[in-house]
Amino acid sequence: MAVEGYRLERIDEHRWRVPRTGPMLTDGLVFANDELITHIEGDKSLQQVANVACLPGIQGPSIAMPDIHWGYGFPIGGVAAFDAEEGVISPGGVGYDINCGVRLLRSDLTEEDLRPRLSGLMDRLYQNVPSGVGASRADLKLAHKQVTRVLQKGAAWAVENGYGWGEDLERIEAGGAIEGAEPDHVSQRAIERGRAQVGTLGSGNHFIEIGYVGEVYDREAATALGLEKGTVTAFIHSGSRGLGYQVCDDYLKTMLHAAEKYGIVLQDRQLCCAPLASDEAQRYLAAMRCAANYAFSNRQMMGHRVRETFEEVLGQSAQRLGLRLVYDVAHNIAKIETHRVNGAEKKVCVHRKGATRAFPPGHPEIPAIYKKVGQPIFIPGDMGRYSYVLVGTEGAFNETFGSTCHGAGRMMSRKQAKRTAKGRSIVRELEDRGILIRAASRATVDEEISEAYKDVKDVVQVVHEAGIGKMVAQLKPMGVLKG
Amino acid sequence: MDARWRTIEHTADLGLEVEASSLMELFMAGAHGMAGVLLGRESGAAEGGAGATVWRQLELEAPDVEALLVDWLRELLHIQTTEGLLFAAAEIETLEASRLVARAGFGPVADVDPVERELKGITYHDLEVSRRDYGWFARIVFDL
C-alpha cells in the first residue's frame, strides 16, 4: 500500500519538504517554485516521492526535481541514493529506457548560414536516421557477438567502426562506456532486439533538434563548451531502444521475486528491488550497464549521421564546420558513486529517473576541458520554445547527489494533448514560426505539442536559483525530427 | 456483460481499464485493449484486429493473477513488437490464479491502420485485478 497522509511544507523559495511519516525512512525534498508546485500537487508524483522514501537503505532525502511528474513507481524527475551495502537497487528507479539521455553538438555555422538549407537538411536527416515506432535499420543488422561488443564497449565500439571521432569519447559521461557491463546477464531476447536498432531514434518524446544559441548567460562557461550566440547546434535525445526495455522487463520480474525473498515491503510493486549486495542486484547492475553502453553507442552513431548529413547538404566536412561534440549525458540511470553523507564520504547507488548528473568544476569524473566550468548539462524543452545548457555545481553535489532536472516535464496527458491539437495543424503552426518538423507520425507531433509541457524556463530557473545547476545558454529550435 | 476496455489518463504514460464478466474474458479483453492502444484507439470491445495468421503457444507462471496479467501482456507485446504483428485472437486453455496456458493468434498490421505507438513496457504500477459485481476489473499502466 502507498504511503498515506503525507504532507508538504515549504522550506524556502525553491524547496519543499514531505516530512517523514508512517513507513517513510526519510523526508522527501522537492525543488519547485509556487507555480510549479501547483502542477506537482495536481498528480500523484508527491505520493511517489513518499513511496521511494520507504525503500531500505535510502541515504539523504527522496529528491524530486522541478520537472517532476507522475511516473510509475519512481516519479519522473526523481533522485534517490542508497547505501552500497545496506541499500537496494530498483529497475523501476531507472526505467525502461535505460540511459535515455541527451547529446549536443556545436558548430561554427551561424543561423543565417543554415536557414536557406534548413529544409533540405531536415529532409535528409529524416531519411538518414531511422525514426518512428519500432524503428530499425535495414542497412545494419549486427550479429549476436557484435551486439555483445557494443554492450561492453559502448560509444568506443561505434568510433572503432568508423562512426565518429576519437575525441568524442572523452566528451561522454563515463567516457561512453560504464565499467562492469557483463553481457552474460543480458537475455538472448534483449540481444536479439538490439541487433538492428543501434543508430535509431525511436518514437515518443525522442528527437533530433537542429537549433542555434539564442542567449548566452555565462560567457566563460559557454566559451569552454564552444557555444557562441547565433551558432548552430544539434541536439539528440534517445536511449537504449528495445534492448533497454527488455533488460528492464526481464529484471522487473526477477526483482518482484527478490523483494519477496528478502522481505522488502513495497509501497508500489513497480518499486520492486533487491539488496545491492545480492546476486539479483549485481546481475541487474551488470545488465543495466550493458544497456547504458548500448545507448551511448546509439547516440554516438546518430551523432555521426548528423555530421554526415551536414556534410552532404552543406558540401563541407564536419571538421571544417566545427561540428564537435559538446557532451553526452544520461538522465535515466543508476550509478555507484562516492558522495558525502552526514559528513562522511561513502559509496552510494544513485538512481536518476528523469534527472541529470550535475558534477561540479574539478570533479575527477568530468573531462579535463570542462574541469574549470563543471560538467555540461542539457535540458530540452518542448519542440516549439527553447532548451537550456547548464553546468554542474557544488550545490548539486552537496544537496542532490550531484543531480539536477532533465526537461520541461509533461503537464498534459497524451490524450489531453491530442484533444488540444485536434483540428489544428501543429506542423504548419510551427513552420509559421520558423520551426520545421519532420515526423514519422502525426499522432506523435500532436501528443508532443508545446502546451503539453511546462515552460522549461521555469524549471531551469528553479534549479539555477536553488544552486543545483548553473545556466549557461539558451538554445532555440530551427528544425525538429520526431519519431 | 460484453467485455470492454478504455484508456485512462496518466501524465506521461497511458493506462488501460478493462471490464469483463469472467477472468478469461478479462485477459482476452486486456490483450485486445493493448492492441487497440498500439493502434492509437481509446476504447473498444474484446474483438477486432486482423485475422490471425500466426499462432504461438504460451505457458506462463506468476506469483499471482495481477503479475500473470502483466506477463501475458508482456509476451503478447514482445511478439507484436519483434515480429511486426498485431494480436488478433486467443484460445485460453487454462487460466488459474498463477498459471496461464493459451494459444495466441496474430495477424499482419494493415497499411491503412498502422501502429501509432511504441509501448516500452507493461508496469506493475497501479496494477489491479479485482472482482466486481459485474464480474472482473483490471487496470494496467504502460510506459510509453
Question: Key terms for this structure?
Answer:
heterodimer, A: 483 residues, alpha+beta, 8-stranded mixed β-sheet, 7-stranded mixed β-sheet, 16 helices, 19 strands, 33% helix, globular, B: 144 residues, 6-stranded antiparallel β-sheet, 3-stranded antiparallel β-sheet, 24% helix, 43% strand
Fold and architecture overview:
Chain A has 483 residues and is α+β, with helices and mostly antiparallel strands. Chain A contains 16 helices and 19 strands. In chain A, the strands form four sheets. In chain A, strands 7, 8, 9, 11, 15, 16, 18 and 19 form an eight-stranded mixed beta sheet that branches. In chain A, strands 1-2-3-4-5-13-12 form a seven-stranded mixed beta sheet, with helices on both faces. In chain A, strand 4 and strand 5 (74-83) form a beta hairpin. In chain A, helix 4 crosses helix 10, helix 5 packs across helix 10 and helix 9 packs antiparallel against helix 10 (279-314). The longest helix of chain A is centred in the middle third of the chain and has 36 residues, at 279-314. By secondary structure, chain B is of the alpha+beta class. Chain B is 24% helix and 43% strand. Chain B contains two helices and nine strands; from the N terminus they run ββαββαβββββ. In chain B, the strands form two sheets. In chain B, strands 1, 2, 3, 7, 8 and 9 form a six-stranded antiparallel beta sheet that branches. In chain B, a hairpin with a 4-residue loop joins strand 1 and strand 2 (14-20). In chain B, helix 1 (23-38) packs parallel to helix 2 (65-83). The longest helix of chain B has 19 residues, at 65-83. The radius of gyration of chain B is 14 Å and the shape is globular. The model of chain B has no long low-confidence stretch (mean pLDDT 92).
